[in-house]
Design a protein that fits this description.
- With 289 residues, this protein is of the alpha/beta class.
- The chain has two domains: 124 residues, Nitrogenase molybdenum iron protein domain (Rossmann fold, 3-Layer(aba) Sandwich), CATH 3.40.50.1980; 129 residues, Nitrogenase molybdenum iron protein domain (Rossmann fold, 3-Layer(aba) Sandwich).
- Helices cover 45% and strands 13% of the residues.
- Strands 5, 6, 7, 8, 9 and 10 form a six-stranded mixed sheet that branches.
- A hairpin with a 6-residue loop joins strand 5 and strand 6.
- Helix 1 packs across helix 4 and helix 5 packs antiparallel against helix 6.
- The longest helix has 24 residues.
- The protein is globular.
Length: 289
């Protein structure tokens, strides 16, 4: 019996470590708690913000979302904190956790839906559609929202196809805090963003986020460098960042092709990411004219 209980508990935990996705309408979406900034953006885009009772700390857009109670960081939720808000439904991104907390919340009867993540324009549209279906959003609102997003995605596709020259080589810097730039490799949100803009990720020889040497950056010869506005803050300006010893000899720095934008807009893979990708792709094209 003891081994059976242990096995069942293990299986229950694994169901959250490897989530089963569903976009079926929720039983009760009157009190929604969000774990993931992209989902908060989607809720507001679908005009369902009246259902929100709490969000996580990555939910910094739109501005009014910051006024809602916080459940903490998406990967480190507290069962007590979430339960105190009496949600009827939790919507989470892939990395919502930890699994033990999600198990505890599920055991007390809270419906939990983990929304599929795919770092592409189509993936964003699918995510919006999934949330709309879970919340039972009015067809007119859902269709209008999806139509607008599809139009943006088509504009982005046209932009990337318009650039007939060789795709630009791009590097995304997450931070410079360690002295060496931490950059996005394969299978990161940065990699997804770069591919959305029709460019090549010069740091695709490794997976994940990793500090890289000056020599590796010089050898990679990025034509453009992307960085979040938060990552740029410690330098004060793009010009000063371009003078950093790790970057100063790159084509991107020499040609002033360093682009700083809101980090969540670029990497959150919510609705704003399509617009961010469009803006970046336009900068590629202007640079090549």
């Amino acid at each position: 019996m003891y081994k059976f209980i242990i096995f069942n508990s293990f299986v229950f935990l694994m169901s959250f470590a490897q989530p089963i996705y569903s976009c079926s309408q929720a039983e009760d979406s009157s009190r929604v708690t969000i774990a993931g900034g992209s989902l908060t953006e989607i809720i507001y885009l679908l005009r369902q913000e009246d259902k929100l009772v709490a969000v996580d700390i990555t939910s910094n857009f739109p501005e009014e979302a910051k006024q809602l109670p916080s459940i903490g960081y998406v990967r480190a939720l507290s069962a007590e904190g979430v339960l105190s808000l009496s949600p009827s439904l939790i919507l989470g991104e892939d990395d919502t956790g930890p699994p033990a907390v999600m198990e505890q919340l599920s055991r007390v009867g809270i419906q939990i839906e983990i929304i599929p993540e795919e770092n592409t324009a189509d993936g964003i549209i699918k995510k919006v559609k999934c949330v709309a279906e879970i919340l039972g959003v009015n067809d007119n609102i859902k269709d209008e929202t999806l139509s607008n997003l599809n139009a943006d995605a088509n504009e982005l596709k046209l932009l990337t196809e318009t650039n007939k020259k060789e795709p630009p080589k791009v590097m995304f810097i997450l931070s410079m805090e360690s002295g060496s730039p931490t950059v996005g490799g394969r299978d990161t949100s940065a990699d997804g963003l770069i591919k959305m803009t029709g460019a090549l990720n010069v740091m695709d020889s490794f997976e994940g986020w990793k500090p890289v040497s000056t020599e590796a950056i010089i050898q990679a010869k990025p034509d453009f460098i992307l960085i979040s506005e938060r990552g740029l803050n410690s330098f004060g300006s793009i010009e000063k960042l371009g003078q950093h010893p790790s970057l100063v000899f790159t084509p991107a720095a020499k040609n002033n092709n360093i682009i700083a934008m809101d980090g969540m807009a670029m990497l959150g893979f919510g609705p704003r990411t399509i617009s961010s990708a469009k803006d970046i792709a336009q900068k590629y094209n202007y640079s090549n004219e």
